[in-house]
């Protein structure tokens, strides 16, 4: 359960801020790169979580 707490907190934060985040990404006046920033963040978080796991040689 200890490992699941940060994940649950992250999911709660994403759920709370998803309408604002969606409006920010889909704003026609915004940059074309905005959706890619979200994917970059997902990749970086996955990399950090993978590196922290014990036994990941």
Distance between the termini: 24 Å
> What is the residue-mean pLDDT, rounded to a whole number?
79
Can you tell me the overall shape? Answer: flat
SSE arrangement, N to C:
HH
Task: Quickly give the structural class.
Answer: mainly alpha
Strands, total number: 0
Describe this protein with a few key phrases.
57 residues; mainly alpha; 74% helix
Task: Please provide a written account of the structure.
- The protein has 57 residues and is an all-alpha fold.
- The protein is built from two helices and no strands.
Give the SSE layout.
Blueprint: H1 4-26, H2 34-52
In short:
It is built from 2 helices and no strands. The chain is mainly α.
